[in-house]
Amino acid sequence: MIIPRGFRFSAINAGVKSPEVRRTDMGLVFCEGQAVLSGVFTRNLVKAAPVVVGQELVGRGKTRAILANAGNANACTGDQGIHDARFLMETAARELGVRSDEVVPLSTGVIGVGLPVDRMASRIPALVSALGNDPEVFARSIMTTDTFPKVVSRAVGNAAVLGVAKGAGMIAPDMATTLAVVLTDAIIAKQDLDNIINKSIERTFNAITIDGDMSTNDTLLAVSSNQVAENINEVEKGIAEVIRDLALLLVRDGEGATKFVTITVAGASDDRDAKKAAMSVANSLLVKTALFGADPNWGRILAAVGYSGILFSPEDITISISGHRVVERGMESEGFSENALHALLKEREIGIDIRIGGGPGTFTVYTSDLSYDYVKINSEYRT
Length: 383
Prior knowledge:
This protein is of the alpha+beta class. The chain folds into 2 domains: 7-252, L-amino peptidase D-ALA esterase/amidase, CATH 3.60.70.12; 260-379, Ubiquitin-like (UB roll) (Roll), CATH 3.10.20. It has helices spanning 49-60, 78-96, 117-129, 135-141, 190-201, 232-252, 271-282, 285-292, 299-306, 338-345, 372-379; strands at 7-12, 26-41, 62-72, 103-110, 150-156, 159-166, 179-186, 208-209, 219-228, 260-268, 318-321, 324-328, 331-332, 349-355, 361-368. Strands 1, 2, 3, 4, 5, 6, 7 and 9 form an 8-stranded mixed β-sheet that branches. Strands 8-15-10-14-11-12-13 form a 7-stranded mixed β-sheet, with helices on both faces. A hairpin with a 2-residue loop joins strand 5 and strand 6. The model has no long low-confidence stretch (mean pLDDT 92).
């Protein structure tokens, strides 16, 4: 693992969801000097308090620390939620010796419950004292239903890029549907970092879906400690690769998922239509359940493209699943074999390729199947 210069990490248990919870559930990322800040947030009209505050801080473009918690989303908590977020920011700022508006809050967990601010604030001195060089402790502190911490790094010449994320459910496009932090020590201007992040998420975080549900807390923050001069094009490439790898890890860890599915639509009138068609297939519950059961029911895929809202000629569509042609000219392919497709659908990784015409539009979406475990996990999340 390659760690960018100037950053330190820590995590502690604060019993955020409940005093009975013993795992780490508060995390801190600290930058030893003034850092450049960028970020993107959920497009859900219902925004959690840390999102409201975070959007304001990203607009200013400077930070020293990220204070995160799991177990409580601090969402739908009104003015008190904003007050609680700022109170914790101020508490952390005093311990770190920085300004309160240099601490960015992140929260994930149950919606509609106030933060236990007194319990959390009492643990912040220990959180600051624990700062060290292991980013995985921070990654573990923000996990909810995740089964493993998600940490990715890249060397970019003399500079480095490190990404940490959480997410396994409520994963849908239109922003980075997760909590994610991307760190670099490359010298970079705020506008350049903004441009890189916004460009990088379009075919990564905005191209993944597990359940079609968009959270109230989705946030991706990008922070640079501005310590190493490096070619901006190489820095952009490194950041884009880290963001892509994080996005794919979210899908691989989808709640109850047994399959990793890549859906590519080509031949659309433009990329936007291709994305709409691919997302329609990816979010279809009937497609997802067929994938889980290895059921060779290609008609569900064709139907999902048909109701996606884009215009195409059904007789032009072809579909292949993991290299096996199942639809040609809008009908079952002459070479289709139900037994062969059933065997392919039992594999852990599945590719669905759909061509809907001769246009230039193309888009790839990443998704998972829908299993019994997904229902179980999400029927017990709050209780």
